[in-house]
Amino acid sequence: MSLFATLRAGFPADLSRPALIEPSGATLSYAALLARSGGIAEALTAQGLKAGDRMVVQTGKSMDALLLYLAALRAGIVYVPLNPGYTRAELDYFLDDAEPSLFVDESVLAKLAAAPPADFVQPALGPDDLAAILYTSGTTGRSKGAMLSQGNLASNAETLIREWRFTGADRLIHALPIFHVHGLFVATHCVLGSGASMLWLPGFDADAILAAMGEASVLMGVPTFYTRLLARAELTPDRAANMRLFVSGSAPLSAETHREWESRTGHRILERYGMTETGMLASNPYDRDRRAGAVGPPLPGVSIRIDAPDAEGVGGIEVKGPNVTSGYWRNAEKTAEAFTGDGWFMTADLGRFDADGYLWIVGRAKDLIISGGFNVYPAEVEAAIEVLDGVGEVAVIGAPHPDFGEGVIALIVPRAGEAVLPESVSEALRDTLASYKRPKLVLIRDTLPRNAMGKVEKAVLRRELEGMFA
């Protein structure tokens, strides 16, 4: 079954029900969603696009942009979303690599969205047919296009709807961008595949999210959503009383944020783990213990193993499952490098399982710090610093050191209105971390560099601080 057919099977019997509601009050019913996406699909095929052709899309978040995505799914056109922030020079790389039959910007989208409604007849599509190409963030070298099939996306959608208990009664606060797995696939697929609805916000707005909690039931966000909401006095148990689920992903959620959110709202955030190349891989359980700092057991149908674990059980995370990419677009070399000889995808993340089968991510392999011959996992050091008084955010990296090979550096953003002294951090860690793990340098910053999904860009920090110990 194709991805769109999988989603369509979950639509409500009453198609007049809303699928999407904008802040202006504009509503897109399921009936209109079908008719308008069908019209756009007809317009695309009238331009000569056929199943398997690529369509590169660089637009903002809008109702029309979502309809374009659904039209592509219906027509079997391979959807290639790009960050609207990319410059023309950056865009040229993706156009050269994807070789699309059509490039859609805002002006082209407006013309397509004006197509009359139509009852589009979907071509036959199988689970191995390509549905989307999503380019990785490219922190090391050029971005690679992860190929995601109809079956990859459909299997993950069905699993998440079931595991997170989505029903037609749900209303999701959608404040994520839609050029990324989290907002485009995880959020919209859970809603549409269960016949639910979503409040379609253009981006993160604390006031809008807090106001929406009274009529919504689910929020999906990145960790910065939760830290920013925690800074608001209006966040109370009463404000969150109508909500049943808060999900966090795309970047690590600190255990301190997890605990503070529960204290303020009475809800435990459900943290999950996934990648562009795989969709979701693991999730804290819906109706059992959601552990602060852990990402939960593997999702049903997904296998996760730890390669070459050290004495503490930490090693490379490798995965298998129906959600895992077949490889990178026109890049046989990188595809071969990404898989083991027995077919497991190497995530480049480091992690360990606890005794109850919960996965704990300790960092990216490239972020591992080796100081004086000892392995230092940034996540462990960050967790020890996050609980200190006044600390709002922290990132830990390594920089070349003449004596130790690498020295540990901690960069801290204090909480609003509070101060953190570097010497107090070093002193506080004496009882919690071995000497080789403790930062040799503590820097106080106003902000940390983050990408569009809220991940700290440690590669940027490493380049900036490369000569700090020289």
Tags for this model:
470 residues; 4-stranded antiparallel sheet; globular
Structure description:
With 470 residues, the protein is of the alpha/beta class. The protein contains 14 helices and 22 strands. The chain has helices at 3-8, 30-46, 63-75, 88-98, 106-113, 150-163, 181-192, 206-212, 223-230, 255-265, 332-338, 378-386, 422-428, 458-464, and strands spanning 18-21, 27-29, 54-57, 78-81, 102-104, 130-135, 145-149, 171-174, 197-200, 218-221, 245-248, 270-275, 279-283, 303-307, 315-320, 345-353, 359-364, 369-371, 374-376, 391-401, 405-414, 441-444. Strands 2-1-9-8-10-11-12-13 form an eight-stranded mixed β-sheet. A four-stranded antiparallel β-sheet has the order 14-15-16-17. The chain has a three-stranded parallel β-sheet with strand order 4-3-5, sandwiched between helices. Strand 16 and strand 17 (359-364) form a beta hairpin. The protein is globular. The N and C termini lie far apart (58 Å).
Task: Summarize it.
It is built from 14 helices and 22 strands.
Give the helix/strand class: alpha/beta
* Mean of all residue-level pLDDT scores: 95
Distance between the termini: 58 Å
How many helical elements? 14
Topology diagram in text:
Elements: H1 3-8, E1 18-21, E2 27-29, H2 30-46, E3 54-57, H3 63-75, E4 78-81, H4 88-98, E5 102-104, H5 106-113, E6 130-135, E7 145-149, H6 150-163, E8 171-174, H7 181-192, E9 197-200, H8 206-212, E10 218-221, H9 223-230, E11 245-248, H10 255-265, E12 270-275, E13 279-283, E14 303-307, E15 315-320, H11 332-338, E16 345-353, E17 359-364, E18 369-371, E19 374-376, H12 378-386, E20 391-401, E21 405-414, H13 422-428, E22 441-444, H14 458-464
Helix pairs in contact: 2-3, 3-5, 6-7, 9-10
